[in-house]
Inverse folding.
């Protein structure tokens, strides 16, 4: 069942952001993590040493597993950052820093 | 950490060892530090002698397990912001050189070869190649494992058992008695409590410090880097807040930013003013840090003794009781030498260093 129906939610119109260059639709109020999950993406980072997949673990900003680059700023916690129209989300490798 | 080192060297001396800890391994100050093995911040004297001895022992231990304990002989760089502080730093380093410390003056134009991201405009620095880092929780765990000692965690010592003649014969814990002809008080910041269980005073006090942890970064800080005024803060007797920037990278990627010192008892509450000062000091040294996220902070309590020297050796007031605590912020670095010295006196040998400056009964009753 659609969770929106469960709570009889009436969200505003969706807007567009980009995930690694492709457009995805996001309902207002959603965090990066919520948008990625809604898109079916559950893993978007790999660990620095062993390359193991990571996505949302704690979901409340504590574990720093869900790190992602938003609007060119690396290491944002996907579970905490709300999205705005036109935001660019990039999955990141390693520390997220270039050097 | 000190207890783990005592266990290792005592076991190597052929003694049967049991380690009793009311918490887990590295649950106290060991787990709350940065893992510095420093000679750079010590003036010539007994503490520096202990640091040099400890450094050699750490290097021996690291031969087999450098990676496991994240042992990294990265060296320290002490920077002087002004010509006056540089002159003072160079005089300090000259004294250390005569005591066996390797020091290399770093001119302004070489500073960025050593540390490319340092702020411009610093007067100069001194490079200390012997400064080293370990990951303290891993080091404590690996040393305990290597010791083969019986490990009793989550077990609180409630009494030091004394025979009729006053000599120590073991400890009572909340889960039974342990009999032993020698008891080593390696309770760190809580060393005063254990001493009092044996009826002796040892004025160990907590000196609180915060560490600020950044997001993982590529290696941008290569050495342990700190400002010259850190040395004065370490040696200070003030209870008021002091901060001086100490910045270092870690094997895992985050940068650790210290160092604050204040005597506020065992208060574990977060202090924004302290952490703000740490961040300001660190960004003065490394401006790029202003664009880096801090993930978290942690705090710990250094075991402070009034003359800034640890208590190491037998306690004549309670035969059979030995102390190995009160190393303030240097306990990780000084643990190996301390463990070696304790093992030597336990085994009835002559210790490598004169223990007189570390006598546990050197404080008057008023100081306690």
């Amino acid at each position: 069942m659609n969770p929106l129906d469960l709570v009889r939610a009436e969200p505003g119109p969706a807007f567009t952001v980009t995930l690694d260059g492709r457009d995805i639709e996001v309902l207002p109020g959603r965090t990066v993590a919520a948008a990625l999950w809604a898109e079916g993406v559950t893993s978007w980072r790999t660990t620095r040493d062993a390359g193991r997949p990571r996505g949302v673990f704690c979901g409340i900003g504590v574990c720093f597993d869900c790190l992602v680059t938003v609007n060119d700023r690396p290491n944002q916690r996907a579970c905490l950052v709300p999205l705005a129209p036109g935001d660019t989300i990039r999955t990141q490798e390693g520390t997220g820093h270039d050097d | 950490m000190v207890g783990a080192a005592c266990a290792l060297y005592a076991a190597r001396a052929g003694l049967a060892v049991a380690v009793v800890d009311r918490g887990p391994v590295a649950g106290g100050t060991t787990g709350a530090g940065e893992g510095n093995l420093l000679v750079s911040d010590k003036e010539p004297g007994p503490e520096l002698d202990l640091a040099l001895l400890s450094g050699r022992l750490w290097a021996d231990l690291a031969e087999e397990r450098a990676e496991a304990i994240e042992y990294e002989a990265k060296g320290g760089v002490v920077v002087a912001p002004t010509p006056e502080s540089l002159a003072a730093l160079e005089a300090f380093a000259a004294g250390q050189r005569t005591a066996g410390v390797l020091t290399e003056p770093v001119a302004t134009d070489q500073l960025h070869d050593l540390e490319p991201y340092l702020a411009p405009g610093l007067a100069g620095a001194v490079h200390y190649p012997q400064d080293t880092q370990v990951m303290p929780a891993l080091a404590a765990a690996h040393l305990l494992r290597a010791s083969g000692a019986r490990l009793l965690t989550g077990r609180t010592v409630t009494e030091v058992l004394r025979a009729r003649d006053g000599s120590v014969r073991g400890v009572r814990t909340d889960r039974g008695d342990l009999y032993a002809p020698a008891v080593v008080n390696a309770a760190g910041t809580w060393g005063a409590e254990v001493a009092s269980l044996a009826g002796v005073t040892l004025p160990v006090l907590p000196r609180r410090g915060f560490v600020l942890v950044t997001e993982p970064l590529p290696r941008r800080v290569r050495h342990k880097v700190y400002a010259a005024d850190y040395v004065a803060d370490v040696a200070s007797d003030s209870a008021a807040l002091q901060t001086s920037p100490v910045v270092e990278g870690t094997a895992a990627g985050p940068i650790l930013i210290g160092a604050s010192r204040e005597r506020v008892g065992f208060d574990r509450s977060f202090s924004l003013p302290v952490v703000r000062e740490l961040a300001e000091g660190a960004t003065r040294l490394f401006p790029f840090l202003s664009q880096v996220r801090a993930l978290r902070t942690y705090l710990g309590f250094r075991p402070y003794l009034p003359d800034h020297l640890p208590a190491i050796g037998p306690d004549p007031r309670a035969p059979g009781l030995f102390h190995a605590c009160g190393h303030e912020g240097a306990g990780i670095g000084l643990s190996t030498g301390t463990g070696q010295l304790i093992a030597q006196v336990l085994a009835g040998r002559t210790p490598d260093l004169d223990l007189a400056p570390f006598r546990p009964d050197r404080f008057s009753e008023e100081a306690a």
